[in-house]
Amino acid sequence: MVEATRDVVVLGAGIAGAALAEHLSRRSLSVTVVDPRTPAAGASGRAAGIVTEQLWNEWDVRVARETREEYRALAAASDPDAFSDAPFVRLTANPDVAAGLLDALTRLRGWGVAVEEVHADQLRTWFPNGRFDRLKRAIASKSDACVTPSSITALYLASARARGAAVAYGAAVETPHFEGDRWVVESGATTIRCRALVVAAGAWSKRLLAELGSPLPLTPYRTQAAVLRPPKLAPTGIGVSVHDLDTDVYARPEANGRILAGDGTERVESDPERFVQGADGSFLAHIAESLGSWFPDWESSDVVGAWAGVCTATPDRRPCIGPLRSDRELYVITGFNGFGVMRSGGAARRLAELIAEPTSPTARAALEPVLPERFHGRADPFPPRPGFTLEGGDVPRF
Ligand SMILES: Cc1cc2nc3c(=O)[nH]c(=O)nc-3n(C[C@H](O)[C@H](O)[C@H](O)COP(=O)(O)OP(=O)(O)OC[C@H]3O[C@@H](n4cnc5c(N)ncnc54)[C@H](O)[C@@H]3O)c2cc1C
Question: Which one has a higher pLDDT value, 264 or 261?
Answer without folding.
Answer: 261
